[in-house]
């Protein structure tokens, strides 16, 4: 029973994915029900000690540590809602539903993993199953997104695996807490930490490893985008929190690097996102920006080991808040694309406004709570962390501008436009009915979800007190952002940019475009070299040619071959040999 | 004769007798031939299961010996390492027989084919159970000779050229093996696998000679194990029909070479002595070079089977790499890859065979084939993902242990080699998979087939790859289960490293 409670969160979706082709109409419930065991486990906690699953993988172990529990609840909840909205898609496309279930299994499994092998297995499983979600539409642009995704994913996996191997060897065990605990004394610590930060950073969208994100997240169908940007992007963060030596040792170098890259990501996400005209790409950039802020929290934990627990809690709170808000916005954009009119548009717009306020950290929203916790840690920096706190507030102002731009893009009901479009549009319209109810559900969660969070942590610190100073601290960046936001709407500078070039000033993928432009300069010579190498290797079949020149066995062997391939000759020969050997041996043993 | 002596002989007989009988079955008696061969394969699997249970659970000893040369017996003995290989070959013989029945259904010369096929397996079982180097040599040569007619089965000029290359390489290897064997026995007198103390005792006096003999033996075995630069025959032999490729690449031939290296290093010299002689590190380096070289060549092969052949060159050296690095995890990883590589590669060759039946021979022709042949391509995808080492497949288990072992032995550069190899594997295995599933099929035949099996070639050809692909996943997911190859390999490695 105990083992079942721990296994069901992963086993149920996997079984569901395998049975999907045969279960018939009941399969529409699978996506909705699959996250239930994880949700129950997260809400009610674990029944008894985690079981030993010696037979599974490489002696898998599971646990539910303080930080993972709220993430587990959030992950299961977001997947459940996304699953509900994907049900219609799942109805006609079992392959998509299968991939959703498999991806979910990996996502939830990595939260429960208590040893590095199980963690890595689940992490990689999720990554590669999600590839199927990214390329679902099979157009040239999704294939490109898929290509970039898979290349970075493979590189990330390789780096992560190497880091985990080195760390586990030093620890002499695969137990996650023990590996993390001994990491601070490992030889070649910098190399290991670098591999882990980089390998997991691909998933987090750490600059400059973020380039896949603005391509892949929008490429997927809406339900998949919601979980990609809402929950899967947190997998790398979970890895960081569980394996980096947070609280054991001060790593000012790595900490400062993470804080720096996090802030760059926060700014880059806002700037590049604001220039987009596709709301899904804009949301993906917003994820880069928000994950940058979470990265800052992890960096603070590395710089300040004494405040590591607070930093971890801030990161987890932020992750839960962002997961719900971002999933809600993606689903809302999906509803909008599918067609809205009249009251449904107004409801949608109001809900999106709420989620946007939360992301910007307006007072008393979950975003505000998360940002206050983060600033609380930053205050502990030597010198009070004034600059960092200010940077965080300015990032919030930037997010406000970004969100205004988002709301601008979806300001008009899309119902009227919908009829004029092609078949794909009417496809999407049928999706809308499946999407709107779950979206409404998650919009409510945006409002209250984060505040329930501390309830799930047994010995959590008291909630951030609601003070005038705190409220003002959350309010002024939003007000500040309203100014440029309003000015933007007045002057619309992107139009002027668009007139000179049809693409956004910073196309989706930003730095990637430089890489792609430079790629032929590397690829062409590399291919040429490989072909030259191959041709050379084919010509110099040294051994064989030496043989041919010296003994000219060709004719001889051809002759032999003629004889041998007459199978009656050969068969008879074998019988004879067999009999002879048997007789000889029988005599020998006697 | 006791049961302990009878079982090893019986294992040989279950493929020898049907093989010989098959030669005399008229070409047209399809059913008789099929029933005979499949029954024999099933019986062999049952016998191997009995053997495994006997050794592991009841601690029984299975040994058969008969005088062969003065002072030297022919010995068949079921030690733990042989069990791993026997188990693999018996299982894959069954699936490959089923596959070959379907694959060759319309071909001629089937009695010849299945006859030699059975003889090959007989030789393989002999190699696996060989209790000393001489017995090993006898069956090793037998394998070379019996495989040749299979490689040239098609009888075309290209097939003959491939066969010629095969014979040239493997016969040279065989001659060197004979030389090494004779030389070693001249020093030691009668010698059996597992008597490492005999060789060790000579190390003081005959250090140089022992080193030379070691090198000769490894080079000899390296021909079949396709160590660079002795690998040339393998990509040329890919002209053979798909079941033969499966045999060459997974069940028997290359595996025999790698297995021989395992036995020479662990059961003849012993790892401590080999390390002392300073021959282990060079072996590691050769393996590492082979791994990278094979993957690099595979990268630009458009012919699917050629690409798979170079992948074999690379993957096989994982085994050599594993056993040449001195640590428990490495040895475990090397031994378990003996099984894992076989099952993954056999799946890929079955799939390549199925694709070939539908006229797809090149990677560039694979566009959209996943829609038409979803079952084959699912199996291909699982095996390809396994080759890259992505969890939860068997390939990941190997990679994890090899990497762990490298770090344990203080040779972290090997992790770099493994990382590079994974990236290269991804670069040549994932594009065909992506093509098959994502690109539109040429000529607008992109609509999904009416049923999952409509596009598959007939004759149950989809069944063997599905069975092996499921095993690839099972071996990864249930790696920790009792009786899994991993537990088994860990047990053997434990014994080897303890002594």
Measure the end-to-end span of chain B. Answer: 32 Å
Q: Secondary-structure element sequence of chain B?
A: HHEEHHHHHHHHHHHHHHHHHHH
What composes the largest sheet of chain B? 2 strands, antiparallel
Task: Give the DSSP E fraction of chain B (strand runs of 2 or more residues).
Answer: under 5%
Number of helices of chain B: 21
Q: Taking Cα atoms only, what radius of gyration of chain A do you get, to the nearest Å? A: 29 Å
The global form of chain B is globular
- Percent helix of chain B, as a range, is over 70%
Strand order of the largest sheet of chain B: 1-2
Mean pLDDT of chain A, to the nearest integer, reads 82
**Which regions of chain A are unreliable across 5 or more consecutive residues at pLDDT < 50?**
416-427
Task: Note the overall shape of chain A.
Answer: globular
Major interchain interface with per-chain residue totals? A-B, 62 and 71 residues
Question: H/E element string of chain A?
Answer: HHHEEHHHHHHHHHHHHHHHHHHHHHHH
Q: Could you list the spans of chain B in which at least 5 consecutive residues all have pLDDT below 50?
A: none
Structural class category of chain A: mainly alpha
List keywords for this structure.
heterodimer; A: 590 residues; mainly alpha; 26 helices; B: 499 residues; 2 strands; 74% helix
Structure description:
The complex is a heterodimer of chains A (590) and B (499). Chain A has 590 residues and is mainly α. Chain A is built from 26 helices and two strands. In chain A, 77% of the residues lie in helices and 1% in strands. In chain A, α5 (94-112) runs antiparallel to α6, α7 (140-171) packs across α10 and α13 packs antiparallel against α14. Chain A starts with a helix and ends with a helix. Residues 416-427 of chain A have low confidence and may be disordered. Chain B is mostly helical and 499 residues long. Chain B has a domain at 279-499. Chain B contains 21 helices and two strands. Chain B has helices at 3-23, 30-57, 80-103, 110-129, 133-151, 157-188, 196-202, 207-225, 233-236, 242-251, 253-269, 271-277, 280-299, 304-324, 328-357, 369-372, 374-388, 394-408, 413-438, 463-477, 485-498, and strands at 63-69, 72-77. Chain B has a two-stranded antiparallel ribbon. In chain B, a hairpin with a 2-residue loop joins β1 (63-69) and β2. In chain B, α3 packs antiparallel against α10, α15 (328-357) runs antiparallel to α17 and α18 (394-408) packs antiparallel against α19 (413-438). The mean pLDDT of chain B is 90. Chains A and B meet through α6, α7, α23, α24 and α25 of A and α1, β1, α4, α6 and α13 of B.
